Amino acid sequence: MSKLHVTTTVNGDEVEYLCDPRETLLDCLRDKLNLTGAKEGCGTGDCGACSVTVDGRLVCSCLMLGVEAEGKQIETVEGIADGYVLHPLQKKFIEYAALQCGVCTPGILVAAKSLLEKNPDPTEEEARYWLAGNLCRCTGYDKIIRAVMDTAAELREAS
Ligand code: FES
Ligand code: FES
Question: Whole-prediction pTM value?
């Protein structure tokens, strides 16, 4: 099958790749752009480990084709930190020990950042609901939610 040429923007940088029309965005990010932060936990849209944003919308990159990224603005976990300076969410995840194996963590960080951009003052229920599509088999979720809620409070104080 002939490859298709895709030009898109990932974390602010214009990039291009050739892909099979059936390849997922997740595989294109990982295998063609070496952005291996997004993980394949299930490949069926159930775990959230592959979460990225596309034109500001949170999506499972395992459910999107690489060719559909043409002309889009993609944000991945690799774009969350500012160079070597961690995003407040990343600092809080460390502070609260909100990760263990880390497979879910990139997707949860992307999803949590998306939540706080849309809703800087979420209730705990809203945060839990927003992150319900991000499964974690290790942490029991409470540390994750505490880290997200504390980040939200810190960002509100700073604004
Ligand atoms: S790998 Fe995409 S939702 Fe699980
Ligand atoms: S830290 Fe292991 S799946 Fe979440």
Answer: 0.97
